[in-house]
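Let us practice reading a record.
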Amino acid sequence: MKKISSILAVAILVFIAFGCRSCETIDSSKLDPSEIYQEYSVTVSDRTAVSAEFRVSGSTGTTIALVAPSKVEHNGRAMNEHLRTVFAGTYYSAENDGFVGSHTFVFTDNSGKQYRNSIEFEPIKIATDSINLSKGARTIVIPLSRGLVDGESLSAQLVSDLEQPKSTPNSLNSNTDVPAGPDYSNDFAGAVDNNAKSLTIDTERLRNFVVGKAKIHLSLTATRRPANVGLRGGSISYSLRSPAVAANVTN
């Protein structure tokens, strides 16, 4: 019964992730350019990965394969095409080593019209080499390398250096068959003070975290509407994972 429940849970997650967005593909030559929705994203961790996706009418529509003269470029270079993939349809990608914060996408439609959209952002990190996280404190202030700009959101992720026993799931992710143990990983939302360049988190979610050494990093996200799109609009977004720093969780 547990195995069946696990399989069902995975199937539900797959449906949620992919069921609402079409994975079918149609050639751009068969469409009126005004029906194309443009979607661009930038993801930064150790590397900078970018993607461009085109869909019919909106964010969940059929994906579009660009047929000449249609094309897409990122920072002046053609992007790699991933044609008719099983779970994502057709999309375009590019990668760079390290951090790249300035991005320009140029989409050319069937008529030769160009749509140029750019986005720029600065890196963000925890502005200390290590941090002490005391469960006894009411709040914890994490120093940041910069404040946030409009539309950005920030959270912190804490992961214990200790290996989590397989028989003791996190208290925030437990089931009825196995008693919940301490947390070995957790996400923390908080309030950002742009003037002080700091993130303040509530220690309530730290209460069940295992004591000892850990690593903590930041996750930054933002989504905006591109300036130059057709009738159906689009989105341009970025997400960044900062380098992890050492943390020590104490009572």
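A brief commentary: The helical segments are 2-18.
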